[in-house]
Design a protein that fits this description.
The complex is a heterodimer of chains A (313) and B (399). Chain A is of the alpha/beta class and 313 residues long. Chain A has 15 helices and ten strands. In chain A, the strands form three sheets. In chain A, strands 1-3-6-9-2-10 form a six-stranded mixed β-sheet, sandwiched between helices. A two-stranded antiparallel sheet of chain A has the order 4-5. Chain B is an alpha/beta fold and 399 residues long. Chain B is built from 15 helices and nine strands. Classes of the chains: A alpha/beta (313), B alpha/beta (399). Chains A and B meet through α3, α6, α7, α10 and β10 of A and α2, α3, β1, α8 and α12 of B.
């Protein structure tokens, strides 16, 4: 089913023991995040620390490629929690986010009950049939329900701005209660509420009622020094000089009024592409050969190549 | 990212009543004086236009409690994470934080006012009590019969109205009933045809004692399509801008969740939030306050680029009906304008350009700006009168 693809479960190994560990202070959390390869600035560290301590969802907004999703992954690893991801899209509804019934199996079950009743002389009791049909074994837990049932867990609700208002209202209910009610089964409440990370690319304004319940984190592109660090920690084989050149060039590109300025994800792709073509330094030739990894508009690529003549060998 | 003086722990963090709480301290345990200062700070922010609610203030106090209350940077981030909700809030927050928590600054103690208020501009459409038109000292062309008067007024140029006519037009605008364009959503609803709906089929079978009856279906639902209004408020559009903002308010109120309104001048201003208010006068006052560049110059190309960067490409303009109200008078290079409109037209479902001059006899779109954008438009409409605005609504509805 198409939906299963939207759900990825990353088995996370606890980086540090949870008690007395990373959630004691913002500094400890920064250090713990660093061991997972996520280099958090003071703002991100404080935000994550507060989200853990206050039990509030973290609402991350920012340019694409500033590490919103990566933050949730790193947090799951640090907390030793399972990462459960819900990718939002236009038209997403409760049956895709929360739970659904396994209708084919229910129908089969119903048929077999009928067949059994047909051979014997008993009539089917509607109440008994219904109870056996809406049994837990026919319940398909979707990401949000799974996050409530799994403890500890980090629930990543990705690109919430792609969903519609009805879905937001529904999300609001789940997030404030940390519980859902399944009419046929009753309430499912989280033993320990999951740490919720919402991301938005600001394609539309998310309702304030939802934001109000969250900590608001605005993510910017990192500065050159941090970007070099990120490149080096994510791509251990990358020579320092090349990392510096890539970071500097990406910063030049970001200042160029491009249609789509490159994010950190793009500079990582670019560095990796340069490694693959076995470039030892960033010059016009290697840049032209790998530019497709960093710029995705023809207009941008043309302008960038023009501009690079001035700052690349 | 640079934080205004926040990275340096500061001794002036007032008032310092108790030593730094060790470990997590709930807000209630913080000294009253500190709570007072913090709550006072949130009041300043509310005044500056941030969405400060009681819930957010409580969260702020809790967040400060989790941190070291005497650490300036901790307080800064505790507030920024709990009290802001939009990137636009961040500069205002920074300014308020700087003023409130730095006693050395005495000149800027007043709550920061983000933009110069220009409320008087909105009076242009409504008759002022002592204006010549309203008092009757100047013979305004009287309308003999109400019905035909209204009909005449519908076709009259918005820039040539007397005060009394504007008042009349205001009421006629309020009576417009704009309908949203629609699109098919991927969200499915119960329907007579479409794909099978196992949930409803099974429930129906249960009601029939397990007998599977007719298959139930569900189909894509129809949702309102986004509408984006971009209104040029530069000097050359000034005679129309007031009426157009009023028109924008009517459209916004009809579908508040799927309409976005921006003004274009020397800079881009989003006035959707203001126009969502029910009362037109209040909404327009708010909008007028928000617009800092009323009847200034035009840098259409650059402002459109700002729109595309901050809103359009992210999704506000994607598959939307975008209506630009402008005479296309471009002070700068028309090439940039042409490029940006080309980009915009690739994102939109339908791009409509409304030019108040287009309805005048003898008009031809040869002027630099409008000539550059013309190849990329779906429609070029006139927008100088109520009747033309009504026909615009039809175009938008059928888009």
């Amino acid at each position: 089913m198409q939906l299963e693809n939207a759900v990825t479960v990353a088995a996370a190994e606890p980086a540090c023991p949870v008690a007395g560990g990373p959630t004691d202070s913002a500094a400890a959390l920064t250090a713990a995040l660093r061991t997972t390869g996520y280099l958090a600035g003071e703002q991100v560290a404080r935000a994550a620390f507060l989200a853990v301590r206050m039990g509030r969802p973290l609402f991350c907004e920012g340019e694409p490629g500033t590490g919103k999703t990566a933050l949730a992954q790193a947090l799951a690893q640090v907390l030793g929690a399972e990462l459960i991801r819900l990718q939002c899209h236009d038209g997403i509804d409760a049956s895709q986010a929360l739970y659904d019934w396994d209708f084919p199996r229910q129908l089969l079950h119903l048929r077999s009950l009928e067949a059994a009743a047909g051979s014997g002389q008993d009539r089917l009791d509607a109440g008994v049939v219904e109870a056996s049909l809406y049994d837990r074994r026919f319940l398909l837990a979707r990401p949000i329900l799974r996050a409530l049932q799994t403890s500890p867990s980090v629930l990543l609700i990705d690109e919430v701005d792609r969903a519609d208002d009805e879905f937001e209202a529904f999300l609001l209910e789940v997030l404030s209660e940390n519980a859902v009610t399944i009419p046929e089964l009753g309430e499912v409440r989280a033993a320990t509420p999951p740490l919720v990370v919402l991301t938005s690319n600001r394609t539309r304004e998310v309702h304030d009622a939802l934001k109000r319940r969250c900590l608001y984190l605005w993510l910017d592109h990192p500065d050159v020094t941090r970007e070099v660090e990120i490149l080096r920690s994510r791509l251990p084989g990358l020579p320092e000089r090349l990392a510096e050149q890539v970071a500097a060039a990406v910063h030049e590109l970001r200042d160029m009024d491009l249609i789509k300025p490159p994010g950190v994800a793009e500079s990582l792709d670019w560095a990796q592409a340069l490694l693959l073509v076995e470039a030892t330094r960033l010059d016009l030739d290697s840049a032209a050969a790998t530019l497709g990894a960093v710029l995705k508009y023809r207009e941008d690529a043309e302008r960038a190549l023009q501009a690079m003549r001035s700052f690349l060998p | 990212m640079s934080i205004p003086q926040a990275a340096v722990p500061s001794a002036v963090h007032q008032p310092r009543t108790n030593p730094a709480p060790t470990g997590p301290a709930p807000a209630g345990r913080t000294a009253d004086g500190t709570v007072g200062v913090l709550v006072g700070f949130t009041a300043v922010l509310r005044h500056a236009g941030l969405p400060v609610t009681t819930e957010r203030v409580t969260a702020f106090l809790r967040a400060v409690g989790e941190f070291d209350v005497t650490d300036r940077a901790d307080t800064y981030w505790a507030g920024r994470l709990t009290l802001c909700a939009d990137p636009d809030d961040l500069p205002r927050y920074d300014l308020a934080f700087e003023t409130w928590f730095d006693p050395t600054i005495t000149t800027r103690m007043a709550p920061p006012d983000p933009e110069r208020p220009l409320p008087s501009r909105m009076a242009a459409l409504t008759a002022a009590p002592d204006s010549p038109g309203a008092s009757g000292t100047e013979p305004a062309p009287e309308v003999p019969v109400a019905a035909s008067g209204a009909e005449l007024l519908r076709h009259q140029d918005l820039s040539e109205l007397t005060a009394a006519e504007r008042e009349h037009l205001r009421r006629m605008l309020a009576q417009l009933r704009p309908e949203s364009p629609t699109r098919r959503s991927r969200r499915r609803r119960a329907a007579r045809r479409g794909v099978p709906d196992p949930a409803r089929t099974l429930r129906a079978a249960l009601h029939a004692h397990g007998e599977l009856g007719a298959l139930r279906h569900r189909d894509c639902s129809v949702r309102p399509r986004k509408v984006v209004l971009l209104i040029d408020v530069s000097g050359s559009m000034e005679p129309y801008a007031g009426a157009l903002l009023r028109f924008a308010h009517v459209v916004t109120r009809a579908a508040p969740n799927s309409t976005e309104v921006f003004t274009l001048g020397t800079r881009l201003t989003r006035i959707t939030r203001e126009l969502r208010l029910r009362d037109p006068e209040e909404a327009l006052r708010g909008a007028a306050t928000a617009i800092p560049d009323w009847s200034g110059g035009t840098r259409l190309g650059e402002v459109l680029r700002a729109f595309l960067e901050r809103w359009g490409r992210r999704g506000a303009a994607r598959r939307a009906v975008v209506v630009v109200f402008s005479d296309g008078w471009e002070r700068d290079d028309a090439v940039l304008l042409g490029e940006q409109v080309a980009l915009l037209s690739r994102l939109t479902h339908r791009l409509v350009w409304v030019n108040p001059h287009a309805g005048k006899t003898g008009y031809s779109p040869i002027q630099g700006g409008i000539a550059a954008v013309l190849p990329h438009l779906d429609d070029l409409l006139a927008g100088h009168s109520l009747a033309t605005l009504e026909s615009l609504l039809k175009v938008v509805r059928d888009a």
